[in-house]
């Protein structure tokens, strides 16, 4: 990371440990950003995702999802090691090797068929394991729900992801756009779970999910949070 990114990382880390009386002290600002994000989603992202799911065969959708999950195995592996879980790191790196080769670049999840369980780890969760607080809830333009710890973790995980080595800008942008489209298409199936005020629902679910993930679910068991895993 360059100096600017490093400075931003430590600033976010500092903010994550500021004690606040509530999870959403910036609610007025967050709701304005939420409204902006909802406008973009309603008019661009969601219609595009609906077209994508309507015309793309199911096996191709599954393959694309597997491809991006396979890229994340490198991030998973690194964070398993940082969290002191060498056996899980071996599991995740083995998944990457198997799916990248036998699984045709990750489009086929052969690792799961071999009994290797898939995990979702990022540096934000690692910071949580290390005792770093999440900090207050933040709604980020375009990106969506987060916290200072989540943003700090994302800055590191973006380097650990499988796309970091792509030097061609147009290729990297294309893959990122496809990743965003694939992610939004998965949201379509989960949106029916949202009830009441959408902003409050997403905020509360996200904060609960962060606690669930940073503790590996040891402090609570919640089938609803597990169902919302892909959405959050």
Description:
The protein is mainly α and 232 residues long. Helices cover 65% and strands 3% of the residues. It has helices spanning 3-16, 27-55, 58-71, 73-82, 86-101, 110-113, 123-129, 148-160, 169-190, 198-214, 223-227; strands at residues 138-140, 144-146. It has a two-stranded antiparallel sheet with strand order 1-2. A hairpin with a 3-residue loop joins strand 1 and strand 2 (144-146). Helix 1 runs antiparallel to helix 8 (148-160), helix 7 (123-129) crosses helix 8 and helix 7 packs across helix 10. The chain is globular, with a radius of gyration of 18 Å. The two termini are 26 Å apart. The model has no long low-confidence stretch (mean pLDDT 84).
Strand order of the largest sheet: 1-2
Give the uncertain stretches in residue-range form. none
Note the main sheet. Answer: 2 strands, antiparallel
Total count of strands: 2
Q: Percent helix among the residues? A: 55-70%
Radius of gyration from CA coordinates = 18 Å
Query: By helix and strand content, what is the structural category?
Result: mainly alpha
Strand content: under 5%
Describe the secondary-structure layout:
Layout: H1 3-16, H2 27-55, H3 58-71, H4 73-82, H5 86-101, H6 110-113, H7 123-129, E1 138-140, E2 144-146, H8 148-160, H9 169-190, H10 198-214, H11 223-227
Antiparallel strand pairs: 1-2
Helix pairs in contact: 1-8, 2-9, 4-5, 7-8, 7-10
